[in-house]
Amino acid sequence: MTTAPLVRRTDEDGVAALTLDSPHNRNALSARLITELTAELTRASRDPDVRAVLLTHTGTTFCAGIDLDEARHPTHDSAGPQRLLQLLRTIVESPKPVVARVAGHARAGGIGLLGACDIVAAGPQASFAFTEVRIGLAPAVLATTVLPRVDPRAASRYFLTGERFTAAEAARIGLVTLAAEDDLDTALTPILDGLRAAAPNALAATKRLTTAEVLRSVDRDADTMTALAARLLATDEAREGVASFLERRRPAWAT
């Protein structure tokens, strides 16, 4: 196993950029990546020189969701859902605004990160899908941050069907803040400049206002959603769904 960090930090003019850099599994939410990202977010939130956090990625995938290869291992850590929930809470509770830069694909649990972020900018190559139902799971933990943000009718459709949708559709339903038609970094410039121009204490207080409903959702549904996620992961249906995905075949129930 590589010892190189899966999350890299660089700082520029008050913005701490945290880059997901786990190309071997498309930046999937492995136990190690979650641990590293939670730690880096915590450090950035306590850094007086940081005005905002930029969450970005290498490769063509922002985040593929939970690490399915890890999830189907016989010694899989059953604390995975709780660990993911704590990561989402860390983003929501951070006094520093967290901006997501999505230049590629976001799937399943990876979209939960976007629900937790304060601002999400997606590029023209970005795509989104809640793929859990197709592998015998449910979008349980991510629902705590996504449902307060997204149009309810759209949530019903995309949660239930697992369809892929574009950045423009993600903006329409409230999942992302803006869908850049051309250069993503150009679209991000006024957002980051605006955060740099804000007074730190006022910025933290204002973030608390805008994240209050998301935080209530996380706290209210934490136990129920983590229990549901853990229970479904242990079913025969999920084992077949995960295996079929990794083996690139149709699951037994597909017609």
Description:
- The chain has 255 residues and is α/β, with parallel strands linked by helices.
- The chain has a single domain (1-182, 200-255), classed as 2-enoyl-CoA Hydratase, Chain A, domain 1 (Alpha-Beta Complex), CATH 3.90.226.10.
- Helices cover 49% and strands 16% of the residues.
- It is built from ten helices and ten strands.
- The chain has helices at residues 31-45, 68-71, 80-93, 109-116, 140-146, 152-161, 167-173, 184-197, 200-233, 236-246, and strands spanning 7-12, 15-20, 52-57, 61-63, 98-102, 105-107, 119-122, 127-129, 164-166, 178-179.
- The strands form two sheets. Strands 1-2-3-5-7-10 form a six-stranded mixed beta sheet, with helices on both faces. A four-stranded mixed beta sheet has the order 4-6-8-9.
- A hairpin with a 2-residue loop joins β1 (7-12) and β2 (15-20).
- The model has no long low-confidence stretch (mean pLDDT 95).
- Belongs to the enoyl-CoA hydratase/isomerase family.
- This is Enoyl-CoA hydratase family protein.
